[in-house]
Inverse folding.
């Protein structure tokens, strides 16, 4: 028995492979008595053929004699050697039936695929002949020829497994390793050399010989008919045009040959040889290949074909025609076996090469063409091995296949980005290109890959002509995901995701449910329609929606068991709000998130300043990987491959057609596809019933004129449609890319025009599709062409007609206002010129007002403004007189929405119009307040990257998108508005007056119990309510220009509350007043007031002001509890602020948390990470002011750690950067940080200079913040140091005053935070006053307290200052001991630059002790040294 890995002859392999493929499944004979050819055998045969062609082609390329030398020899009697006798087949090692371990050891050549499974079809499928149905099954087997085939096979039942066990060695012959030409023995008397006509003929004869071999392989071992075989001598004679050709005699020889008679009965053997050259072969071979009926049928066919050609051909052409007809009829034998037609044609065209120059146009010219065609059959069997259903194709138009758009390299690039996202490193992939280059097709191909891998592929599409429902594109995408969760509620993973969404969104889920309605079916949420605290801030609401969207995406991509992919098409038409949401989603942290974003846009329709490109550049700056794939029009070779796949023909057969198509379409895929459809429709590209494949008329195609623009071509096609179809297409185009079928049905009934049936006809023409109860255009260019059918004036009227038809029924529709938005959108496209009736105008205004309010409810303020603006445009000239309240409401709402767009001009115009036409002062309050907000400080800004020329690092600069920052003007306007509301504010206030007012107000509140405050009456006076809103707005801006006015604002708010009742802003007033009380020294009293504020929040169920109350409360709490512990509350406060959409307070919380973490004594390496992350977060929220504060703290840390100079900004450059911000408070922080660093690094002159500059900021901060603790500490230490150097009493007095403030905090606050600081300041005061023993004791207590409270930074500082004190007292031993301890603590803290200066001081001043200390590391090794030192020394705890 043959063993695995053996080499056998081709004929032996055919015999054994046939037996294996039959016996292994116990196949019986077919109904006609013929043996069946199993699919396993045909699969293996294709691989043998491909391997053999590649072997010979490789020999040709290298000029090797193997294979070619054999063809130059023949036997002495002139017959052709049998090429099949020289072919061997090598089997693979090991069994090919699921034996993966053995298979991995086999050598794999370039064309050998995977081991062939024992069987990949059902037994019933194999028992029949390989007819048309079996050919389809063969295609399926070939298409699934991979490692999974064995696994797929095993799932079909246990019968096959039992058969494998019964025939353990039967499958080895189907596992082909390679096919080769055996070596040819040279020399010998039985061989002689033949002179061939030319070298080209060698190659043609080689292909012909292989064709005969292929005939034998694919026929299942049947020898080729004798009529197909030509000897070398007859080939020479055939090519000799001087010899006459006796047609009658040749025909007689042909008849005798096919009847089984020998040619020797004829005397003219030469002419006999011209025909078949095979008289030596026994008659049995001929009989084996055809029975009597088939032989007679072939004779009749040959006679008819040859006699028809005799009349019009010369003798040379007749020879070639005879050979071609013989070949064609012989190949019919293979077709009758059910062999695919393309494979039969391949064999025919190989055999046709024997005719040399008279071969057909489709014959092969070189062996590489054969190899490539076999490769296509193996690689794409569903395309190149499929027999076309010509009868069906004759009745239906050409169908474009997705495989036509070949973009493999680009697809691999996208797949790589997806794989990274699947591994938890989200990447962004973008596809850019002109219209029609196949962007959407490539993205959808990527989507199929994602879905096949178990991922989720969400998609949406923006439209040029369609405004649509608020956030319709993103809502559609995420709604589909929620639908998936609903359908999978029984799965544990789906339940987990739903529960995590409930947890992440909480009570804010209502806002997101308005955008994603299906989300409401997954989670439980509270109604939030009235949750606006009486002061609706559109900016905060939009930011809250951004936050919720980020939480939604973060949750589903973290807890889903697959990658969440979002594909958005036509981003060049995306609205600003959607782009902003996309940006927030993509900028969100990527920890444990498996999210893949794929976007498409037309790069020729999007400028560099487009918001989407700005967002992408912004995201790139945050380190997010972005991969952009650029699609161009395809080249000529690609067009050839595209047509090859489209027409299911070899590329060499469509080359001439592709030349014409490429010339006319310039390689634009959309243009190309539409051109091919038009050729098919016009009969220039048609299925041939005779050849059973596509045919075309090249001359007529070449002569056909074609426009340069695809839009013109589409317009021409649409123009030829019936009028009702054109009108239906135009109506559909008015609604954008797609619209629901039920809406078109409603419109059809209202307009009384047929729409549904004409659209069905348009669908048959390939213009529109109907899927998922929607009509949609196949491409945007088709939509544009359909819309251009009507002239502009008719478009406006038709939009108005459609909109009014739908508007009446939209108000009662229960569809989440979708129909209302669509109807009003159509009306607004029609515009005021399309309406002449004033009553109808008024009705349209009301429609716009209703749509705008609905859009506000969904937080789409841009769309709401669009509706309000259009509503104003439909008002009549006398609208302020005739429709006053309707006009006032429209103008007020439009002004509020204009804040979001940052349109200061529009806000001013609207405000002026209201002021001019208002019937009373109260009617102007809302627009006046909007204008006040508009000129307040920037809270939300767009920003871009700029290269900072000082450091080479990317810093941020801000470009105002929302508000103007005319702060002084805003303050004056606020004070003026308050005056009109009978609430005057003084312009100047003394410190004593403010303290008196605080005491008076505190005394008033002490008379009212907390219970009475919680049950206090509510404010009803609209003027006082507006006064509270203006005061709150002033509180945010006044500290920038006149901080002295700050304390009077909460005092005034408390006064109004006590006089007129509680408002939604009263809790803020109590919180801010509590901060004032704490600042004056009553910390616990101030904290109790913040408790009252929190109780009021619970009592009134307020949300928006919660953030401010919590922030103020946490600041005071930092004085009562240990700083590190209280500081953790800021994380929760930040999340609360984000959930409320308050970006300003969320950034404030992050800044305070990061800076307090630094001051609380964390290792500097950890503090640096916290500060860096905080900078990234605040910049992702567009808050540049916060970033400036953090930058200054970050630079101080870098200087203390001694990082490389490239990371440190020079002082002058840093100061210039701060000055450019024009921020008074930032400049104050700059001088404080410079003073602190100079003090720590012992740079006296710089310290004194900065301290003097800091004194210029004389305004007393009335807010109590945790950072003030360290301002007081450093300010006092610096003052005492300057006094000891200068003996100027001012500095001693200032130091003593700041120490007194620290004493108050120590007495009322946390000893953990304040005790060591007070002892240290007291020691410095004693040192400055030369009280030696008191100073010595105080230093000791400061060191002990800092050590006990685990404040390593302040312990190091206490040791250092005590060491300097003892050094000044000439106590060298104690001084050195303390210096050594300080050096060790600074190393532990991570202040390596500070430790280095201390090391140098010790080396310079303690000569005998040189070498006692090692120099601290600076740079890369610093952190490692810090960690190792910390591990060596265990800190003592309380």
């Amino acid at each position: 028995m043959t063993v695995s890995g053996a080499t056998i002859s081709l004929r032996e392999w055919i015999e054994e492979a046939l037996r294996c493929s039959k016996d292994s499944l116990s196949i019986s004979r077919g109904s006609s008595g013929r043996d069946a050819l199993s699919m396993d055998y045909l699969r293996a045969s294709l691989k043998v053929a491909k391997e053999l062609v590649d072997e010979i082609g490789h020999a040709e390329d290298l000029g090797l004699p193997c294979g070619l030398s054999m063809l130059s020899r023949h036997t002495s009697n002139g017959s052709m050697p049998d090429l099949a006798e020289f072919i061997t087949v090598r089997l693979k090692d090991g069994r090919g039936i699921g034996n993966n371990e053995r298979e991995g050891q086999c050598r794999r050549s370039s064309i050998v695929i995977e081991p062939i499974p024992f069987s990949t079809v059902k037994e019933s499928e194999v028992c029949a002949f390989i007819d048309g149905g079996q050919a389809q099954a063969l295609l399926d087997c070939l298409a699934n020829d991979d490692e999974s085939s064995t696994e797929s096979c095993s799932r079909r039942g246990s019968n096959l497994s039992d058969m494998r066990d019964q025939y353990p060695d039967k499958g080895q012959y189907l596992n082909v390793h390679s096919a080769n030409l055996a070596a040819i023995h040279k020399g010998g008397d039985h061989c002689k050399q033949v002179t061939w006509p030319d070298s080209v003929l060698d190659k043609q004869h080689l292909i012909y010989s292989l064709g005969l071999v292929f005939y034998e392989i694919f026929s299942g071992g049947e020898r080729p008919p004798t009529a197909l075989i030509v000897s070398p001598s007859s080939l020479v004679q055939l090519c000799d045009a001087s010899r006459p050709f006796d047609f009658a005699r040749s025909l007689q020889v042909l008849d005798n040959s096919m009847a089984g008679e020998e040619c020797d009965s004829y005397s003219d053997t030469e002419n006999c040889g011209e025909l078949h050259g095979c008289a030596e072969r026994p008659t049995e071979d001929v009989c084996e290949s055809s029975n009597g009926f088939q032989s007679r049928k072939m004779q009749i066919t040959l006679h008819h074909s040859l006699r028809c050609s005799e009349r019009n051909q010369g003798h040379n052409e007749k020879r070639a025609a005879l050979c071609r007809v013989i070949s064609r009829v012989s190949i019919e034998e293979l077709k009758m076996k059910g062999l695919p037609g393309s494979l039969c044609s391949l064999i025919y065209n190989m055999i046709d090469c024997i005719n040399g120059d008279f071969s057909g146009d489709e014959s092969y010219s070189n062996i590489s063409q054969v190899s490539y065609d076999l490769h296509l059959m193996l690689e794409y069997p569903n395309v190149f091995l499929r027999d076309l259903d010509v009868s069906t194709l004759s009745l239906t138009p050409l169908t474009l296949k997705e495989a036509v758009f070949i973009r493999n390299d680009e697809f691999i690039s996208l797949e790589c980005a997806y794989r990274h996202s699947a591994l938890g490193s989200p990447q962004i992939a973008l596809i850019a290109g002109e219209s029609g280059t196949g962007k959407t097709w490539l993205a959808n191909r990527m989507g199929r890959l994602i879905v096949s891998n178990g991922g989720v592929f969400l998609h949406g599409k923006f439209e040029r002509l369609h405004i649509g429902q608020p956030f319709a594109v993103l809502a559609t995408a995420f709604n589909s995901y929620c639908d998936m969760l609903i359908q999978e509620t029984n799965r544990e993973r789906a339940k987990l995701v739903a529960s995590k969404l409930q947890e992440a969104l909480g009570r804010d889920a209502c806002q997101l449910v308005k955008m994603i309605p299906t989300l409401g079916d997954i989670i439980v949420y509270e109604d939030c329609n009235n949750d606006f605290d009486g002061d609706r801030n559109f900016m905060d609401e939009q930011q809250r929606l951004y936050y919720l969207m980020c939480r939604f995406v973060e949750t589903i991509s973290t807890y889903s068991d697959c990658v969440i992919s979002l594909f958005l098409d036509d981003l060049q038409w995306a609205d600003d709000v959607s782009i902003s949401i996309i940006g927030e989603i993509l900028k969100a942290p990527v920890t444990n998130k498996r999210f893949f974003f794929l976007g498409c846009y037309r790069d020729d329709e999007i400028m560099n300043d487009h918001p989407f490109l700005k967002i992408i550049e912004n995201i790139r700056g945050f380190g997010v990987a972005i991969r952009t794939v650029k699609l161009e029009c395809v080249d000529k070779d690609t067009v050839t491959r595209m047509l090859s796949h489209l027409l299911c023909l070899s590329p060499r057969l469509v080359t001439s057609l592709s030349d014409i198509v490429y010339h006319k379409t310039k390689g634009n895929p959309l243009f190309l596809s539409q051109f091919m459809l038009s050729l098919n429709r016009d009969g220039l590209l048609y299925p041939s019933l005779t050849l059973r494949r596509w045919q075309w008329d090249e001359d007529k195609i070449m002569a056909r004129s074609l426009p340069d623009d695809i839009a013109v071509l589409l317009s021409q096609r649409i123009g030829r449609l019936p009028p009702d179809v054109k009108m239906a297409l135009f109506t559909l185009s008015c609604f954008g890319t797609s619209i629901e079928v039920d809406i078109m049905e409603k419109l059809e009934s209202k307009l009384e025009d047929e729409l549904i049936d004409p659209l069905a006809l348009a669908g048959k023409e390939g213009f529109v599709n109907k899927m998922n109860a929607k009509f949609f255009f196949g491409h945007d260019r088709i939509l544009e062409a359909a819309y251009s059918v009507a002239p502009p004036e008719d478009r406006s009227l038709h939009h108005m007609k459609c909109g009014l038809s739908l508007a009446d029924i939209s108000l009662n529709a229960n569809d989440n206002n979708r129909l209302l938005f669509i109807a009003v959108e159509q009306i607004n496209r029609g515009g005021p010129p399309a309406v002449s009736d004033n009553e109808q105008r008024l009705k349209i205004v009301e429609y716009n007002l209703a749509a705008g309010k609905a859009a506000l409810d969904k937080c789409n303020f841009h769309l709401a403004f669009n509706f309000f603006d259009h509503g104003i445009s439909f008002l009549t000239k006398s609208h302020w007189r005739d429709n006053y309240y309707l006009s006032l409401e429209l103008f007020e709402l439009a002004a509020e929405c204009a804040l979001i767009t940052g349109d200061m001009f529009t806000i001013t115009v609207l405000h002026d119009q209201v002021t001019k036409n208002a019937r009373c002062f109260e009617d102007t309050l809302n627009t006046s307040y909007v204008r006040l907000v508009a000129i307040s400080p920037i809270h939300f800004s767009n920003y871009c990257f700029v290269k900072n020329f000082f450091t080479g690092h990317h810093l941020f600069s801000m470009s105002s998108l929302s508000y103007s920052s005319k702060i002084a003007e805003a303050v004056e306007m606020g004070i003026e508005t308050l005056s009109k509301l009978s609430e005057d504010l003084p312009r100047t206030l003394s410190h004593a007056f403010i303290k008196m007012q605080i005491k008076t107000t505190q005394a008033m509140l002490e008379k009212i119990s907390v219970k009475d405050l919680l049950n206090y009456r509510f404010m009803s006076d609209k003027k006082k309510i507006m006064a509270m809103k203006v005061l709150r707005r002033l509180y945010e801006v006044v500290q920038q220009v006149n901080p002295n006015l700050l304390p009077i604002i909460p005092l005034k708010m408390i006064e109004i509350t006590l006089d007129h009742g509680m408002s939604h802003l009263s809790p803020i007033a109590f919180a801010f007043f509590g901060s004032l009380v704490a600042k004056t020294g009553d910390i616990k009293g101030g904290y109790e007031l913040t408790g009252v504020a929190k109780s009021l929040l619970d009592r009134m169920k307020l949300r928006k002001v919660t953030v401010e109350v919590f922030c103020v409360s946490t600041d005071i709490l930092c004085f009562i509890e240990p700083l590190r512990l209280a500081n953790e509350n800021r994380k929760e406060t930040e999340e609360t602020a984000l959930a409320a959409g308050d970006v300003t307070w969320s950034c404030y919380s992050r800044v305070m948390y990061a800076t307090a973490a630094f001051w609380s004594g964390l290792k500097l390496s950890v503090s640096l990470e916290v500060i860096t992350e905080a900078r990234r977060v605040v910049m992702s929220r567009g808050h540049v002011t916060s970033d400036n504060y953090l930058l200054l703290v970050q630079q101080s840390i870098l200087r203390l750690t001694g990082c490389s100079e490239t990371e440190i900004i020079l002082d002058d450059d840093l100061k210039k950067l701060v000055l450019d911000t024009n921020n008074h408070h930032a400049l104050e922080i700059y001088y404080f940080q410079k003073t602190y660093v100079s003090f720590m690094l012992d740079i006296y002159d710089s310290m004194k200079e900065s301290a003097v500059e800091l004194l210029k900021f004389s305004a007393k901060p009335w807010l109590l913040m945790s950072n003030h603790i360290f301002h007081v500490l450093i300010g006092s230490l610096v003052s005492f140091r300057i006094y000891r150097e200068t003996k100027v009493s001012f500095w001693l007095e200032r130091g003593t005053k700041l120490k007194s403030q620290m004493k108050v905090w120590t007495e009322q606050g946390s000893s953990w935070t304040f005790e060591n600081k007070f002892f240290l300041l007291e020691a410095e005061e004693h040192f400055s006053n030369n009280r030696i023993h008191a100073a010595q004791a105080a230093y000791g207590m400061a060191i002990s307290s800092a050590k006990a409270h685990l404040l390593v930074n302040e312990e190091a500082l206490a040791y250092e200052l005590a060491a300097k004190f003892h050094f000044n007292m000439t106590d060298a031993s104690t001084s050195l001991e303390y210096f050594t301890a300080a050096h060790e603590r600074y190393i532990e803290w991570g202040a390596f630059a500070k430790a280095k200066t201390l090391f140098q001081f010790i080396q310079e001043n303690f000569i005998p002790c040189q070498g006692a200390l090692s120099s601290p590391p600076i740079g890369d090794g610093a952190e490692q040294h810090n960690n190792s030192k910390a591990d060596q020394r265990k800190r003592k705890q309380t």
About this structure: The mean pLDDT is 77.
